[in-house]
């Protein structure tokens, strides 16, 4: 337990009410601790969990579930990453969506990034089954009504020379399958959905299914995004976006 005692001794301390977490006495054996945010005290003395904070960006391929584990035994994004630390995906991409995915064990940062107040910008390259009508483009930009509420205004760019079938869209919400549902509400089907950027992170130079550690500059940028201080930067589509 945090380098304080053996497992058996730690269980005895918990049984004796000597261990606190976040100001409350721990009563259950096997209680999980988040190293990034939980404060553990033993007999009134605070202990810090020595765990290295890790920040990883993955170019997610299709057919991988964005979760730490799957009850159906399907492949998850953690199957693609070799990390000694216990990490988790920040937010979700559906099974068929590819692109930028952040994984970390920094729980505090992850919670801030996912909180609606941070308005973290997410940029997607959308490939449609038919050209996007200009009227629909305007409505998508102003916000559309979905079953879980109206979406916030979005920014759209139609990629030249694609007959309005290739779109870049910037949103700052995290509704479930939001981009897909936005276009489907007007009768479009998405042939391919690729997240180009998340909170300033991109996957330039990373083949699908590959990952890398974030740079110091990127980590700083993520923390700025979590505090809502990163200015919006328009991201163009990726030329070498191979499946």
Low-confidence stretches: 233-237, 239-243
Shape: elongated
**Rg result:** 21 Å
CATH class of the largest domain: Alpha Beta
Structural description of this entry:
It is a single chain. With 243 residues, this protein is α+β, with helices and mostly antiparallel strands. It folds into 3 domains: 41 residues, Structural Genomics Hypothetical 15.5 Kd Protein In mrcA-pckA Intergenic Region, Chain A, CATH 3.10.290.10; 97 residues, Alpha-Beta Plaits (2-Layer Sandwich); 78 residues, Alpha-Beta Plaits. The protein contains 5 helices and 15 strands. The strands form 3 sheets. Strands 5, 6, 7, 8, 11, 12, 13, 14 and 15 form a 9-stranded mixed sheet that branches. Strands 2-1-3-4 form a 4-stranded antiparallel sheet, with no helix packed on it. The chain is elongated. The chain starts with 6 loop residues before the first helix and ends in a 17-residue tail after the last helix. The C terminus is likely disordered.
Task: Map the helices and strands.
Blueprint: H1 7-15, E1 19-21, E2 24-25, E3 40-42, E4 45-47, E5 55-60, E6 88-89, E7 98-104, H2 107-114, E8 122-128, H3 134-142, E9 145-146, E10 149-150, E11 155-158, E12 166-171, H4 178-184, E13 190-198, E14 201-202, E15 211-213, H5 216-226
Parallel strand pairs: 7-13
Antiparallel strand pairs: 1-2, 1-3, 3-4, 5-7, 5-15, 6-7, 8-12, 8-13, 9-10, 11-12, 13-14
